[in-house]
């Protein structure tokens, strides 16, 4: 692996987010911003990744996990001061160091790699990622000399009227010769409007030392946009969703209306699957080939096999086989397992339950803490009564069993293979294989008794 290092700045609190959650932990398409940046950085060729943390250091470090080494910036005194927190690790090391921001979730590893390559191929002391924008308000400006070379970077609050009209902006992403970066960081002062130590001042010091500074002007400005408030968070989410959806379609997934389809950054979907409008797929969900999903379905952290149909239903933390039919209006709750060719139909709720191949619960059924074998039929309105107010109990139904409508199966109970439970029964004892269970009161009709009840409405 090459001598390349990455530093991600993630110490800010994010006051403008107006949130108890630290800025870089806010999610874009289901993943914290810092994870987007870390994951893209890990795709590039780096020997080591460092994340500078401050506000919410423990929470940010937990989100980064083992993907990078977190270094604490006790006081937030500017971007230059933040990078200095890695001096003990990098100051005496040869190589290239890229500095990124933890609140730029749209950055891609391709852009990072191109920035490094330009700096290294030109033997430059630094390369600055820049962009041309119509409205540069809020960004540092790239100030060039008469020959077109970078002369300095001026922050918005320190810029004069002429400098503020410059439309080439600093994105805050750099590639440096590592030794030169840390040598000059010690010379940066805080003589500016904010009283902070600015990392861009290193660029000015390099120019003053006659070191070569080059730029890479990206054509994809949205990659570099930082998130400082909820409005920018929504904009970043829209850009990210467009990227995810476009990638899905390029790889063989049909999205009927991409603008109303919401897919997480970590989900995967197979070829020839059709996603209808209003569908939301979150977490690390995987949907197989040739499925039909939606409209208006929610799928969270589920594995779905091939050629399965899910119609206007909610699924979470469960495994779904191939050629399964779910919905409309079904709810698959966590820890459920639905095997191939099974059916979970209208207004059926399933929780911590395994349903065997070709088994059916077509409508108005609750299955909780149950195990169904193959080819089981669950009648309309059937309930596994799994909770006594303190404890949950299991129901087991064997292969080929037939459960009639409006049956109550009082757990713990076992229904044997091929058994038949008559409609309207309340089952409190296990039923043997191939047995018929009837558990209901004998019907009694009292002639003309309804007249005594006097419940009719007089018109």
TrEMBL record:
Its EC number is 2.7.7.23, 2.3.1.157. Gene3D superfamilies: Hexapeptide repeat proteins (2.160.10.10), Spore Coat Polysaccharide Biosynthesis Protein SpsA, Chain A (3.90.550.10). The keyword Iron-sulfur does not apply. Residues 1-230 are annotated as: Pyrophosphorylase. It catalyses: N-acetyl-alpha-D-glucosamine 1-phosphate + UTP + H(+) = UDP-N-acetyl-alpha-D-glucosamine + diphosphate; alpha-D-glucosamine 1-phosphate + acetyl-CoA = N-acetyl-alpha-D-glucosamine 1-phosphate + CoA + H(+). Residues 266-355 form the Mannose-1-phosphate guanyltransferase C-terminal domain. Its cofactor is Mg(2+). Residues 6-214 form the Nucleotidyl transferase domain. Acetyl-CoA binds at residues 386-387, 423, 440. Residues 231-251 are annotated as: Linker. Residues 252-459 are annotated as: N-acetyltransferase. Keywords: Acyltransferase, Cell shape, Cell wall biogenesis/degradation, Cytoplasm, Magnesium, Metal-binding, Multifunctional enzyme, Nucleotidyltransferase, Peptidoglycan synthesis, Repeat, Transferase. The active site is at residue 363. Pathway: Bacterial outer membrane biogenesis; LPS lipid A biosynthesis; Nucleotide-sugar biosynthesis; UDP-N-acetyl-alpha-D-glucosamine biosynthesis; UDP-N-acetyl-alpha-D-glucosamine from N-acetyl-alpha-D-glucosamine 1-phosphate: step 1/1; Nucleotide-sugar biosynthesis; UDP-N-acetyl-alpha-D-glucosamine biosynthesis; N-acetyl-alpha-D-glucosamine 1-phosphate from alpha-D-glucosamine 6-phosphate (route II): step 2/2. One of its GO terms (molecular function) is glucosamine-1-phosphate N-acetyltransferase activity. Binds 1 Mg(2+) ion per subunit. It is found in: Cytoplasm. Catalyzes the last two sequential reactions in the de novo biosynthetic pathway for UDP-N-acetylglucosamine (UDP-GlcNAc). The C-terminal domain catalyzes the transfer of acetyl group from acetyl coenzyme A to glucosamine-1-phosphate (GlcN-1-P) to produce N-acetylglucosamine-1-phosphate (GlcNAc-1-P), which is converted into UDP-GlcNAc by the transfer of uridine 5-monophosphate (from uridine 5-triphosphate), a reaction catalyzed by the N-terminal domain. In the C-terminal section; belongs to the transferase hexapeptide repeat family. In the N-terminal section; belongs to the N-acetylglucosamine-1-phosphate uridyltransferase family. NCBIfam families: glmU, PRK14354.1. Homotrimer. PANTHER family: BIFUNCTIONAL PROTEIN GLMU, NUCLEOTIDYL TRANSFERASE. This is Bifunctional protein GlmU. It comes from Sporolactobacillus kofuensis.
């Amino acid at each position: 692996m090459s001598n390349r290092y990455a530093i991600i700045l993630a110490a800010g609190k994010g006051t403008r987010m107006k949130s108890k959650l630290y800025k870089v932990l806010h999610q874009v398409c289901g993943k914290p911003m810092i994870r987007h940046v870390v994951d893209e950085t890990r795709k590039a060729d780096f020997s080591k990744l460092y994340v500078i943390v401050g506000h919410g250091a423990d929470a940010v470090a937990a989100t980064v996990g083992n993907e990078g080494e977190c270094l604490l910036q006790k006081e937030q005194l500017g971007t230059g001061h933040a990078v200095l927190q890695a001096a003990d690790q990098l100051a005496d090391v040869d190589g290239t160091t890229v500095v990124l921001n933890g609140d730029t979730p749209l950055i891609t590893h391709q852009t990072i790699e191109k920035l490094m390559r330009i700096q290294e191929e030109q033997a430059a002391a630094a390369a600055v990622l820049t962009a041309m924008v119509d409205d540069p308000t809020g960004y540092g400006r790239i100030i060039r000399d008469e020959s077109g070379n970078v002369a300095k970077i001026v922050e918005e609050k320190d810029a004069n009227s002429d400098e503020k009209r410059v439309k080439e902006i600093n994105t805050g992403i750099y590639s440096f010769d590592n030794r030169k970066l840390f040598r000059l960081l010690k010379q940066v002062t805080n003589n500016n409007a904010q009283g902070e130590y600015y990392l861009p001042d290193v660029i000015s010091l390099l120019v003053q030392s006659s070191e070569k500074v080059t730029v890479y002007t990206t054509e994809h400005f949205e990659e570099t946009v930082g998130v400082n408030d909820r409005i920018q968070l929504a904009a970043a989410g829209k850009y990210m969703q467009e990227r995810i959806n476009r990638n899905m379609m390029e790889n063989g997934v049909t999205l009927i209306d991409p603008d109303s389809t919401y897919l997480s950054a970590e989900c995967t979907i197979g070829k020839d699957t059709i996603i209808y409008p209003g569908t939301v797929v979150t977490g690390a969900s995987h949907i197989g080939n040739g499925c039909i999903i939606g409209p208006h379905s929610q799928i969270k952290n589920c594995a779905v096999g091939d050629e399965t149909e899910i119609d206007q239903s909610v699924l979470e933390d469960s495994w779904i086989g191939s050629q399964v039919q779910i919905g409309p209006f079904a709810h698959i709750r966590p820890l459920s397992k639905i095997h191939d060719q099974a059916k979970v139909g209208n207004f059926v709720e399933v929780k911590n339950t395994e349903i065997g191949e070709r088994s059916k619960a077509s409508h108005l059924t609750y299955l909780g803490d149950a195990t169904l074998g193959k080819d089981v039929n669950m009648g309309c309105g059937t309930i596994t009564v799994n909770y006594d107010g303190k404890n949950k109990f299991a129901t087991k139904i064997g292969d080929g069993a037939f459960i009639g409508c409006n049956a109550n199966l009082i757990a713990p109970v076992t229904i044997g293979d091929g058994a038949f439970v008559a409609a309207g029964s309340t089952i409190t004892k296990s039923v043997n294989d191939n047995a018929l269970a009837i558990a209901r009161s004998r019907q009694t009709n009292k002639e003309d008794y309804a007249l005594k009840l006097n419940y009719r409405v007089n018109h």
